[in-house]
């Protein structure tokens, strides 16, 4: 009896709940599509503002150096805003900290897209971090411009990721260009590879092996969370390598240099442009060795690297002069650094895209504008962009340099290429010799 | 009529079910009302809460400590990622979650057997090793588990019936984000229901007995090792479910998501909320979800730069933790419970298991009671 009461009571409760829910429901579905067939998405755009966002490691292990990038971009946007903005709209730049953790990247990107309602993502940093959000951004149709990473995935699959664009030269062409340089100039070198264990290392290895497959005697990889690179460097030393190509972030460049010092391993080093900033690596050397090593901008002297935009070591370059002026007027405390220049450079490219997209700004229009970038569009990059409807890969080339007294001395002219077996050629576009417009703002 | 109602209320299962149904209704109302962004935050609160509930049962009711629950969440998340590699994968979501829980349970048995032999700092050390080692597995088997970049998770399309139900209730199709939020909260409610029942059952009483006095428990015929292992396994299962939800919400299973910090975050949620209290675990999870963002926003509004605002949140997090431990050492729910008990003191104390009306949500008051010394 009791049991029956219980049952009936429960079902009465269920029934009541259902009825309450039904009463507040909207009933059946009307099958009419909302006819939103107008010009495109203008989320984040008002008559006088454009809101854009980015994720960067502002705290945590990856923060040194990288956290300076958004300060540079912010300074350039402030400079543009002070001059009246783009087509009468000022740029509101929202930066979120992801601490280089993909879970956080996913969180802050949700926040940027759904809460702050950004028009576009500009310069989100990192391969593992940005890959956590790239599909989400494409599903939502949020233009994802100038990812701060050289992974191929931002630009080589336009069908899958129609709104994502790379910016810096991808790691594969960097690998190809240094590979060819070594094959031509050091044909007897025994080459060791020291790679970050993600797309960074993998894409670079693909490029290097096109030219050096025979010469590579050892490959060692590290994961970015692990700060002990002793075993890898010992293995490189044991293999007899006399030239090590390192595709490392600044922290791991410094760590590998310290371990090599300890082991007395003295090969010729090549360090990817990602991890070869002399000032930052120098200060990291001091910090990691707790003062045992006197790190300075000269710590990487003799090391080979590549460059694709002019940096602080070229104060006479007209672009660097523009950056210096912008930084002095609108920057925060602290000197102009290569990371700040990097931030300003992609901010410049973004303003360029906004100008090209015209007054009736839509997300679709912005994507088309970048795909249609003129090949000779002026900009700080040393080689032209590759943007088209089929490729969203960025800058097409770089220059091999040797660091002397903290300054990159060119060893080759600017060399350009593309992914796959595209030949490497000398750049003839004159991109490296152009200067910014008088106003400092792209036209 | 009143007599019958009271008798009903005394049946634990009925009371827990009522609260669960109320919970479902409340969650439905809240989730239909909020924006997609809030729904995502609530999803985060749900998966942290689910895993923290498992940990609070382990630590609060059985007296074992685990610094490795983040790693158990990783197992659930990676299982989910392997089962949902792309949109075309047709593994039903329910099956995915069950398998994720199953894999974690298997790991829970192994770890639990080892843990049952250890105490205090040794147990903390062993589970700490788990938290450090598991992300390493993903790095070692890079080709299969995606290495540093992790495995992408393709959350399934919203099934037709859910679309219809959502439309019926709110007049618009639920987005995939909202759907995942519903799934996460349903998982939380089911987990809480099961844990609340378990802790009120004979099993739960054994766990407490082992926690309070091993010798007495053994004399009473309780198999210490078995009680410990079972507590660990149940706790692991909850962590696995939480991990599966994390993977669905974040759309990624990567080692960076399951660092030691996650394990410590769970422990923090449990300590903040009050050991052994399911409501406390939920409260702690909510605090950890919303606090960083609120603090960062306040910092930005106060004119701090992005970097300074980002650095503010770990600071406030630490301060809150210190303040709670200083002022409310038994956690937020523990303090609430103490206040309620103190207010009632003038009245004659009720017999130990008499059905007094729950002071808070019913499912939970039963477990908070368990922690009262």
Strand content bin of chain A: 15-25%
Termini separation of chain B comes to 36 Å
Provide the β-strand percentage band of chain B.
under 5%
Mean pLDDT across all residues of chain A, rounded?
Answer: 86
Number of E-type strands of chain A: 14
How many separate structural domains of chain A? 2
Number of domains of chain B: 1
Strand order of the largest sheet of chain B: 1-2
Low-confidence stretches of chain A: 1-11, 18-37
Can you walk through the features of this model?
The complex is a heterodimer of chains A (443) and B (373). Chain A has 443 residues and is an alpha/beta fold. Chain A folds into 2 domains: 49-169 and 312-395, Response regulator (Rossmann fold); 172-307, Rossmann fold. Helices cover 39% and strands 15% of the residues of chain A. Chain A has 14 helices and 14 strands. In chain A, the strands form 3 sheets. Chain A has a 5-stranded parallel β-sheet, sandwiched between helices. In chain A, strands 10, 11, 12, 13 and 14 form a 5-stranded antiparallel β-sheet that branches. In chain A, helix 10 (250-263) links the parallel strand 8 (243-247) and strand 9 (268-271). In chain A, helix 3 packs across helix 13. Chain A starts with a helix and ends in a 17-residue tail after the last strand. Chain B is globular and about 55 Å long. A two-stranded antiparallel ribbon of chain B has the order 1-2. In chain B, helix 5 (93-115) runs antiparallel to helix 12 (224-250) and helix 13 (260-273) packs across helix 14. Chain B starts with a helix and ends with a helix. Chain B has 373 residues and is mainly alpha-helical. Chain B has one domain. Chain B has helices at residues 2-10, 12-33, 36-62, 69-83, 93-115, 120-140, 142-145, 160-170, 176-200, 202-212, 214-219, 224-250, 260-273, 278-301, 306-327, 331-344, 362-371, and strands at residues 151-152, 252-253. Chain B contains 17 helices and 2 strands. The longest helix of chain B is centred in the first third of the chain and has 27 residues, at 36-62. Chains A and B meet through helix 1, strand 2, helix 4 and helix 5 of A and helix 2, helix 3, helix 8, helix 12 and helix 15 of B.
């Amino acid at each position: 009896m009791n049991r029956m009461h219980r049952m009936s009571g429960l079902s009465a409760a269920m029934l009541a709940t259902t009825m309450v829910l039904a009463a507040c429901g909207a009933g059946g579905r009307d099958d009419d599509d909302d006819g939103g067939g107008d010009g495109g998405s203008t989320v984040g755009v008002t008559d006088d503002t454009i809101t854009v966002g980015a994720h960067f490691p502002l705290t945590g292990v990856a923060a040194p150096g990288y956290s300076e990038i958004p300060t540079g971009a912010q300074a350039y946007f402030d400079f543009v805003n002070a001059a009246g903005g783009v087509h009468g709209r000022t740029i509101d730049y929202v930066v979120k900290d992801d601490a280089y953790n993909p879970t956080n990247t996913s969180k802050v990107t949700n926040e940027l897209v759904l809460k702050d309602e950004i028009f576009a993502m500009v310069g989100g940093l990192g391969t593992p971090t940005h890959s956590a959000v790239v599909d989400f951004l494409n599903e939502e149709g949020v233009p994802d411009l100038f990812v701060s990473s050289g992974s191929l995935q931002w630009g080589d699959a336009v069908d899958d990721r129609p709104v994502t664009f790379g910016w810096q030269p991808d790691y594969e062409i960097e690998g190809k260009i240094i590979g060819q340089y070594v094959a031509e100039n050091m044909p007897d070198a025994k080459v060791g590879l020291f790679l970050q264990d993600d797309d960074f290392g993998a894409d670079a290895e693909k490029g290097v092996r096109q030219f050096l497959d025979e010469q590579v005697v050892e490959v060692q990889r590290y994961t970015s969370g692990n700060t002990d690179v002793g075993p890898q460097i010992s293995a490189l030393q044991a293999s007899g390598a006399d030239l090590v190509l390192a595709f490392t972030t600044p922290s791991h460049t410094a760590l590998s240099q310290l371990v090599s010092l300890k082991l007395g391993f003295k090969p010729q080093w090549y360090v990817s442009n990602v991890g070869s900033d002399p000032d930052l690596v120098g200060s990291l050397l001091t910090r990691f060795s707790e003062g045992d090593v006197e790190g300075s901008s000269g710590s990487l002297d003799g090391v080979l690297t590549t460059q694709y935009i002019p940096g602080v070591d070229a104060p006479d370059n007209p672009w660097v002069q523009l950056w210096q002026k912008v930084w002095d007027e609108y920057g925060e405390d602290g000197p102009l650094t290569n990371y700040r220049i990097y931030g300003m450079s992609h901010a410049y490219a973004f303003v360029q895209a906004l100008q090209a997209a015209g007054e009736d700004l839509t997300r679709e229009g912005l994507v088309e504008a970048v795909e249609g970038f003129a090949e000779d569009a002026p900009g700080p990059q040393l080689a032209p962009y590759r943007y088209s409807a089929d490729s969203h890969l960025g800058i097409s080339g770089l220059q091999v340099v040797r660091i002397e007294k903290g300054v990159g001395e060119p060893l080759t002219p600017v060399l350009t290429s593309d992914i796959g077996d595209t030949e490497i050629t000398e750049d003839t576009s004159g991109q490296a010799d152009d200067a910014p417009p008088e106003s400092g703002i792209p036209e | 009529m009143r007599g019958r109602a009271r008798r009903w209320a005394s049946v634990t299962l009925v009371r827990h079910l009522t609260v669960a149904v109320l919970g479902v209704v409340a969650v439905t109302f809240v989730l239909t009302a909020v924006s997609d962004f809030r729904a995502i935050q609530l999803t985060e609160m749900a998966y942290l809460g689910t895993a923290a509930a498992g940990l609070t049962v382990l630590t609060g009711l059985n007296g074992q400590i685990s610094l490795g629950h983040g790693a158990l969440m990783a197992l659930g998340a990676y299982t989910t990622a392997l089962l949902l590699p792309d949109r075309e994968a047709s593994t039903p979501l329910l099956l995915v979650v069950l398998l994720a829980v199953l894999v974690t349970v298997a790991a829970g048995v192994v770890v639990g057997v080892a843990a049952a032999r250890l105490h205090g700092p040794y147990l903390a050390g062993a589970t700490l090793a788990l938290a450090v080692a598991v992300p390493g597995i993903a790095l070692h088997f890079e080709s299969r588990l995606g290495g540093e970049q992790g495995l992408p998770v393709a959350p399934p399309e919203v099934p037709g019936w859910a679309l219809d139900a959502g439309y019926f209730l709110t007049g618009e199709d639920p987005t995939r984000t909202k759907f995942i939020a519903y799934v996460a909260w349903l998982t939380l409610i089911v987990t809480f229901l099961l844990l609340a029942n378990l802790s009120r059952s004979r099993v739960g009483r054994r766990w407490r007995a082992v926690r309070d006095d091993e010798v007495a428990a053994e004399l009473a015929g309780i198999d210490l090792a078995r009680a410990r292992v079972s507590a660990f396994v149940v706790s692991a299962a909850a962590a696995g479910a939480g991990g599966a939800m994390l993977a669905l919400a974040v759309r990624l299973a990567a080692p960076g998501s399951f660092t030691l910090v996650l394990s410590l975050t769970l422990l923090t949620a449990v300590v903040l909320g009050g050991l052994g209290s399911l409501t406390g675990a939920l409260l702690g999870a909510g605090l950890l979800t919303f606090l960083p963002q609120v603090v960062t926003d306040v910092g930005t509004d106060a004119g701090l730069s992005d970097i300074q605002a980002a650095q503010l949140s770990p600071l406030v997090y630490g301060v809150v933790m210190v303040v709670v431990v200083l002022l409310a050492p038994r956690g937020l729910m523990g303090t609430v419970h103490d206040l309620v008990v103190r207010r009632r003191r003038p009245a004659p104390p009720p017999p130990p298991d008499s059905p007094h009306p729950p002071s808070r949500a019913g499912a939970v008051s039963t477990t908070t009671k368990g922690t009262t010394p």
